[in-house]
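Can anyone check this?
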Amino acid sequence: MEDLDKEVEIYHENLAKNNPNSFAAMLAKARTSIVIPEFKGQGTEDEIKMKRYLFYKKHYFDNFKMDDPRMLRSPELFKRIDYYIKNLTPQHPDSINVSLDRIFNLIEGSEETFRYYLSHYLNEYAKSKIVGMDAVYVHLVENYYAKGKAPWVDEESLKKITDNARTLKPILVGKIAPNIKVYKRDNEAISLHDIKSKYTILVFWQPDCGHCKKSMPVLKEIYEKYKDKGVEVLSICTKKYDKDKKMEEVEKCWKFLDEHEMNKWINAVDPFIRSRYAQIYDIRSTPRIFILDAKKEIIVKGIGKDQLDEVLDQIIENDQKKQEHAMEKK
């Protein structure tokens, strides 16, 4: 089998050498394997593995003429690029952004190819359900669309794209959650940043929302389980003042909380939407959950009730390990 693979590789090399400008030769060269040095004697086993990985990643596109528009019509290019993003790149927004920038730099010579892949990855990360990946979307918008590098997009669509990125940027994972002032049952104002707790679960909800009816009791269980570990909840009901019903809708919030005995944490409303929380926190549906640290930095967002226990447990465990490690260093 190895002999056959070697024969195929030699055939591809000869085809590329004898017909350098043909599309077939281009594909043949693209299928040529990258030869990775052994790096023998250049470190520990793990260090050598890392050297081999970095070499492979650096030279991954060496045999591809990325900016030749003919490559767009071959599945080879898509498979190669997608593998680079999904398998050779650590799945963290910052790392993905660096890899995407490298790819766009390599293909910018072909307008058609550049357009296809920029549009493809913008849509992919706009729809991503993975927590934190909206940071990739924001990066693509700010560095390409907002800088005039997507001239095929009409003015109206471009405005929607850039406005969406502008909304998402302040609430990306790792950002300090925007401060908002809301109101308790007795009309006392409370600001998010005034809450002193190791962790804050910020939840936006409605009493007549089906998903909220299922999620809020779970949140109550989570609060009881973790409150002694420094977890506080700021629950903001999104019902508002109505010119005909007056405060009737808002009263539904307090009724729900009373009926379900959810008055141990901080409950609030903003019936006149003075805080603009819906725009600031991009509340398009409820419930909407954010987990914040002591500095009110967003650790996680957009998770559902079924993930909340596991995620919070992992956050607390990781923080404890960091503290223990810091103590050991002392």
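Reply from J.R.: I decoded it. Residues 2-170 form one domain.
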